Amino acid sequence: MTLNERILLVDDDDDIREVMQDVLASEGYRVDVARDGAEALAKLPGLTPPSVILLDMMMPNMDGETFLHALRSKPQMADARVVVVSGSANIREKATAMHVAACLVKPFELDELLGVVRRLTEGKPH
Amino acid sequence: MIVGVGGGVVGSNGTDDVLLRLVFRRMPGTVWAVDRSLCFTYAVGRLVDAAGTSSTEIVGKTVQEFLGTKNPTDPGVAHHLAALAGEPQSFDYQFRDRWYAVFIDPLKLADGKIVGCVGAAIDVTERRVVEQRLAISEARLAEAQRTAHIGSYEWDAATNVVTWTDELHRIMGLPPGQSVQTLDAYMALVHPDDVEATHRALMEASAGGPFEYRNRIVRADGGVRWIQTRGEVTKNAEGRVTRMIGSSWDVTELTEATQARERLLSLLQATIEATEEGILVVDRQRRVVLRNRRFLSLWKIPVHLEDCDDDLVLLGYVRDQLERPDEFLLEVERLHANPELEDCANVRCADGRVFERYSAPQRIGPNVVGRIWSFRDVTERERQLRSALFLSDATRLLTSLDVERALDGVARIALPFMGTGCVVDLFIDGGPRRLVAVSTDPRSPTSPELHPTVLGRNSIVYQSDGMSVLAVPLLIQQELAGAITFAAPLRRRYAPEDVAVAEELARRAALALDNATLYRRAKDALHTRDELLSIAAHEIRGPLTAIHLAAQTIRKGKASPDSIRNLLAVVEREDRRLSRFVEELLDMGRFREGRFQLKYEPVSLGEVVRDVAGRLDPDLVRSGSSLSVLVAQNVIGKWDRFRLEQVVTNLLSNAIKYGLGRPIEVRIRAEEGCAFLSVTDRGIGIQPEVVPRLFRPFERGVSERHYGGLGLGLHIVKSIVEAMRGSVTVSVESSPGGGTTFVVELPTGENEANDAQ
User: Does a structural domain hold residue A25?
Assistant: First the structure.
């Protein structure tokens, strides 16, 4: 079940964040949002650890890559599966190098987003 | 002198006869008488003595017996016989090694009957010898005259007759014997150009004593000959000219040869003096046989040595002027030791001059008699050659796009040609800095101060710290981009030619720098274009993703009515965002090409700010920033409303985007025909080093692409404000994160209505 699965959505684009939050919420996920890496790091300790983190790469203050490094240094967050989201053409190679669970290249289809999130949450042990 | 006497007549008186005999004995003659049978009837005189007989013994002997001949054709016999025939005889006769002039007359009686003859002989042996000698000598003279082409003449004043020898006829081109009879006839032969001079010479000769002159005569066949004449004038006791005697000879060949030689010498002299080369000719004994003025001036030979014929003295003087005297002396000795050698080399003087030295043997026939040295000043040619080589090498180096390394190389190859030190300063790409400083002379200052004249973009030659200094500016499109400075010991004085080379080098270096800059800019532009494309893709992908997701969510029918409203608002917003983005790109092109129209109309700045703030309210709310607008007075100016809204929108959007949710403040005021709009945020601020390029297209105050947007906002602001004759400045708080204030200053433009661009 996905009902209690928590997802952290980090993106500086207000509209994308809003739409994705809406979409994921209507699919039954609990979605927390942050507008950049710094805000996400600040919020994390107060959150139930998310199963999936949807992470935009290009953000002010702290970009996705920096956030990822910070995240990996936290043992309690080791289980979090990260999906990088980016408009860059070369994000797939970068994603492989960063050892993330998946990547979404903007603009992506709704089914793509949901498929990735579902796959990552279903295989996760509780 | 001799009187022949008949035998019967003479001797009738014994005393008379003795007396007569005595007289004849004293005289150098002999007299005799013979009868018709040629028997001596009487004889007295030296001839008789010479015969070794006496007068008495001879009487009764025949002539044949006396002469010792039986030959009737013997002249001594024949002439007697002829005289007996009635014809008086006169002849020379040789008898016993002596010559006699003999006269024989018939001895006639009163009735005309010839009874014998009387003879007389005079010893003419001495006279004959003299006559013979004279004849030989005359013949020899004639022969000598013929051989030497010398002719003699004689003029007798009394008769006005001129007598010429045969050779003189030949010389004058006249047949022998056809003598020029008078002085006038002689003058008629003289070449018209020489008549006057000949007259003058003869007039002077008439003063007496020896004279000599040379003139030309024209021969009958038209040939012109040069004649040398000398002679002597004789005067009588009254001082009147009686005779002129002398000789003339043909000197045509000699004169022509002399003239040809003079012409040749003059030509040779003129040629030697006219040449650019300094020439010195030295014989095998090292004596100077020739030098021209140019040689003396090239080597600065002092006046007292101008005529010096000692090669070693001159060599000593030359040697002191050379850069490498020993080398030169060795060469000189080598060439003198090898007379056949021909050789060419350059000689460098300590004063910087360069001579081309050529040396070759002087020959007479196959024999080497001396050596010719010639020196040509090739300083200018050498300098030009070296300049050209240097500039060509430098240019080759400067074709590298790594100009700074190239300039380092150029500075190194410039030495020692341009001096003993070289420094290159650059003022572009990060301010004044010393790019190169090289020196081959420890005294060369490697850090000369840049001369104010160079900073004023002009070349200069000056002295500093005991060095000659040449400095030229590096100008890129008339802007000072740097300087090249050369230094050399004082004895090298930089000449205008050096300045020209340095300026040419600076010109090429500047061109290379300019090219490198253009290349870098082109590369940067390509990079920027790639960046732009990447950013543009990102900018389009964001809205597209939002629109995609919203549309697909709505289509799935799972969304609640509230959610649908929300999603549609997102679609609308993103649609606007894309439109704005496209508009910015188009504006960008318009600004770049200078084609965008401004519609001036009275506009209230406060109203524009309020309208824009209203439109951006959703963004403000989302960002968490508050906005306060402080309007000191109602500011109205003639502006383009739409463009002014764009300016305010971009500035406010920036403040919202980078404001970190902190308060934003907008102030409006007017002052002396100018409106001031300031937008202040307390956000992330801008690094000071970024400020200069803040208004360039695709630039952002943040280094990475962390923020959305094309980076065109501020560029558009600046373009619009400047089109409306205003200005935009930015002030940044010193502490990072201290926020930013943009101030736009716009003339209210009462006088500039409808001044559209």
Answer: yes
pLDDT digits (tens, 9 = 90+) for B29-76: 788 999 999 999 988 877 777 777 777 788 888 988 888 888 888 888
pTM: 0.48
Q: Is the pLDDT of residue B88 over 80?
A: yes
Bridge partners (DSSP) of residue B364 are B367
| Nearest residue to B681 via CA among B701, B705, B704, B661 | B661
Which residues are bridge partners to A30 per DSSP?
Answer: A6
Question: Is A126 inside any structural domain?
Answer: no
Q: What is the pLDDT of residues B422-443, one digit of tens each?
A: 999 988 766 678 888 888 877 6
HSE-CB for B757 with a 13 A CA cutoff: 17
pLDDT, tens digit (0-9, with 9 covering 90-100), for B229-272: 999 988 888 888 888 889 999 888 888 899 999 999 999 989 99
Contacts with B, A 37-96, CB within 8 Å:
58-61, 63, 87-89
Mind spelling out the 3-state secondary structure of B409-450?
HHHHHCCCCCCCEEEEEECCCCCCEEEEEEECCCCCCCCCCC
Q: Which of B342-351, B523-532, B646-655 has the lowest mean pLDDT?
A: B523-532
DSSP string, B81-130: HHHHTT--EEEEEEETTEEEEEEEEEEE-TTS-EEEEEEEEEE-HHHHHH
Whether residues A106 and B545 touch (CB distance < 8 A) is answered with: yes
Torsion of CA B264, B270, B271, B277, to 10 degrees: 150
Among the partner residues A23, A87, A106, nearest to B553 by beta-carbon distance: A23
CATH at residue A32: 3.40.50.2300
- Which chain A residue lies closest to B702 (C-alpha atoms)? A60
Is the confidence at residue A121, as pLDDT, over 90?
Answer: no
* pLDDT at residue B725 tops 70: yes
Identity of the residue in A63, A87, A108 whose CB atom sits nearest the CB atom of B538: A87
pLDDT band at B710 (very low <50, low <70, confident <90, very high): low
Contact B652, B629 (CB under 8 A): no
Residue pair B35/B7 in contact (Cβ under 8 Å)? The answer is yes
Residue type, B596: F
pLDDT of residue B431: 66
Nearest to B708 among A13, A111, A113 (CB): A13
In Å, how far is B734's CA from the nearest CA of chain A?
Answer: 19
Residue B377, pLDDT > 90, answer yes
Are residues A111 and B566, on separate chains, in Cβ contact within 8 Å?
Answer: no
Could you give the CA distance from residue B585 to residue B602 in angstroms, rounded to a whole number? 28
Residue A90 lies in a domain: yes
Pick from B539, B541, B567 the residue to mutate for testing the A interface (most A CBs within 10 Å): B541
What domain range includes position A113? 6-121
Q: CA B555, CA B562: separation in Å to the nearest integer? A: 15
Work out the average pLDDT over B342-361: 91
Q: Is A16 on the interface with B (CB under 8 A)?
A: yes
The number of folded domains in chain A is: 1
What's the pLDDT band for B744 if we cut at 50, 70, 90? Answer: very high
Which residues of B lie closer than 8 Å to A, measured between beta carbons?
534, 537-538, 541-550, 552-553, 556, 558-560, 563, 566-567, 570, 573-574, 577, 622, 658, 684, 702, 704-708
Is A1 a member of any domain? no
d(CA B185, CA B172): 12
Rounded CA-CA distance B399/A42 in Å is 56
CB B648 within 8 A of CB B612: yes
In this prediction the ipTM stands at: 0.87
**What is the overall mean pLDDT for chain A?**
85
